[in-house]
Design goal:
The structure is a homodimer of 225-residue chains.
Chain A: H1 23-41, H2 48-55, H3 60-65, H4 69-93, H5 99-110, H6 118-133, H7 135-157, H8 167-187, H9 196-209, H10 213-219
Helix pairs in contact in A: 1-2, 1-4, 1-6, 4-7, 5-9, 5-10, 6-7, 6-8, 7-8, 8-9
The first copy, chain A, binds a DNA duplex (30 and 30 nucleotides) through residues 2-4, 13, 15-21, 23, 26, 47-49, 57-64, 68-69.
DNA sequence: GGCGCAATTGTGCAAGTGTATAATCGCGGC
DNA sequence: GCCGCGATTATACACTTGCACAATTGCGCC
């Protein structure tokens, strides 16, 4: 006997109508909903019910496409990180020119929306504990982190100035400046003028590697004079 | 002392023995347990039961000293941040000497344990969402952040090199380098040699502000040659 | 020594959690 | 048309969560 039942008089409860989307679409919807929730309220806000509601689906469907909540969250993290690095590589490939101009474009792209955004920072922070705990998530982290830094290191190695033995340390330092400015600029956007963070990044990385990145960026039209 | 423990089966269940600690002690214990749990597993790991267990008390006591879980977590965040800035100010006051040496000591102190530690980073990340959501937590954040950066700005202003109009941008950039290196060094400690991060920080901040901080640090005994 | 206060415990509860599984029904293939 | 598969929903369950509140008991004070 069906206990429950708020069957109002007459009709009987009909289950909600739905459409059969493809697997790719549904996975994308669920991952998107997960990212939105983690950005807003951290991992604890990304409950299966909240995710399902945001994706316009019922909770049971999550288990149909993912092994469980943890698996879905891991997939969301992977998509986030790969999205960032892919966008970055794409921005880099679009720029030809001198090594200075290419490095300048790379730096500036990291210090502007959509990469430098509060949502991205809070997402990153929200996933940090999972990176620490889950080996598979940590593998994703290490992979994407090193991909980014290797790209930066290659750009620095192309510069005329640095000696080969210093390139690694310069890449670490440059990466750190970018990370730190990315954090500050995203968390306290009102504390800085438009493109002020990008400009400071170009000046600072430029001084560290011994190149005039700000000038190169202006010449290439990456920022305005 | 009664070694407490559940006496063997049979007897009636007596409630566990306890001691009446002072309010200050109990609050400190609860805050310490909260910080430990957030560092390990994020905010979601800091449940009232887990906190109470770690602090060696029962969950009900939390409500006796704090208005609720959220209030306790806010208090823990305040203690964490004030502890960091206090320790930093103290380390700075202990160093006399040239402006370069003082700035060098300040930079190096931020890029070594106990400040540069994975626990601190994960704590900071764990609280980030609460900073975003809760106005009172955000006030604590802004206060401690600006205290740190103002101190750095004052140190840079004491240097002979920089022009007054540049000090603000230099402080932002220097702070960013420190933040970024702090992140990298804490998250991936195995990727760097001992004091490599501190040395890179001194070189990088030095180039940004136009001073030989590494040399000053070596002269002052802050790092070894 | 014992009284009394309040620090501390224990229990209970309603709401929320992830997951398992049965029941339904959209929709492509015939 | 309609048949059947599987995408999707609905329901159930065991467990955890934060919180309220009464019962207990350590311990300062007379």
């Amino acid at each position: 006997m069906t206990v429950d039942g708020q069957d109002a008089a007459g009709g009987g409860q009909d289950r909600r109508a739905f459409r059969r989307e493809g697997e790719a679409q549904r996975r994308a919807d669920l991952i998107g909903a997960t990212l939105a929730l983690v950005a807003e309220g951290g991992l604890e806000a990304a409950t299966v019910r909240a995710i399902a509601a945001r994706a316009g689906v019922t909770p049971g469907l999550i288990r149909h496409y993912f092994a469980g909540r943890e698996d879905l969250i891991r997939a969301a993290y992977a998509q986030l990180m790969h999205g960032i690095t892919d966008a970055n590589a794409q921005a880099l490939d679009a720029v030809a020119g001198s090594p200075e101009a290419r490095l300048a474009a790379f730096v500036a792209a990291s210090l502007r929306p959509p990469v430098m955004a509060l949502d991205v920072v809070t997402l990153w922070a929200g996933f940090l504990h999972m990176v620490r705990r889950d080996p598979r998530t940590r593998a994703i982290h290490a992979e994407t982190y090193h991909a980014y830094r290797d790209r930066l290191e290659a750009l620095i190695a192309d510069l005329p100035g640095p000696e080969p033995g210093q390139v690694r340390a310069l890449a670490i330092a440059g990466n750190a400046v970018i990370d730190g400015l990315w954090l500050e600029g995203a968390i306290l956007p009102d504390s800085f003028g438009p493109d002020e963070i990008a400009r400071i990044g170009l000046q600072s990385v430029g001084r560290i590697v011994g190149a005039d990145l700000e000038g190169a960026a202006i010449a290439a039209g990456v920022i305005t004079a």
